[in-house]
Amino acid sequence: MVKAARFSRFGGPEVLEIVDLPDPHPGPGQVRIAVRAAGVNPSDWKKREGLMDPELPQTMGYEAAGVVDELGEGVADVAVGDRVFGLSAEGAAQAELTVLSFYAPIPPSLDFPGAAALPAAIETATRALDQLDVGAGAGRGSTLLINGASGSVGSAAVQLAVARGARVIGTASPANHDYLRSLGAEPVAYGQGLAGRVRALAPDGVDAALDVAGSGVLPELIELAGGPEHVVTIADFGGAREHGVRFSSGDAGRAVHALAEIGELIESGRFSLPVARTFPLAEIAQAHRAGEAGQVRGKLVLVVGPAAGDTL
Asked: Are both 33 and 108 inside the same structural domain?
């Protein structure tokens, strides 16, 4: 049996519990890891509140880092004992053991919490950039507007777009403008008058726009990008339907190539995703409260096993 995060009713952080579940085992092409750290994401509290899946009970977590301890059939690219990070298709990464359906070696300079912070943010950002053709052929040198650029997905998208050769304009609160500059973006404040502030930097508008924040600005993004076909949102499902914008989700296929590609950018100093705070697995409710308060820049990460004593 392994200890894992789960909830049996929808509600606030108090519904989260650590329970004993049967050991998971990898299927073909999968690996099982002894989890050392697992990322926490806004989708976790949406799921906990009943806004995603109706079934009960539900396990928690889509991303983790740890040490391979069991190989599925056909796996030849990693060995037992290797440090890897990746995505749990079953949504059960916040546990002592989890199965990763997509994985890659942990970049040498990263510890387990730093690696666990990566998968969801870089996959989401990469998928959206791929859908906008940022950095593809004629897209190199294009101007991309990112609405909500200072969070984990937004800051990942900034850095990945810059690495692809794009000029990036990013919206954020003024307190985060220096941070965006450090990532290579040109910051603008969000809120009323956004289009004018963007046009002050890009008089002819932008080539593409990515909405990470879901703050009701799709009409402005469409106008700046020259049409809904040049806009992708990961946060405004209703607005996407209303305005004819593509809503990016993993249902149409995940950009798992991001996992193998990120190591080179990290080791060359062109990408970083800070871990804001770590919590032991048993304190998952406190991690949710910190995340929902919205005052954290960087990822929240749960630490498991030996890592729990190493990183706090």
From this structure: yes
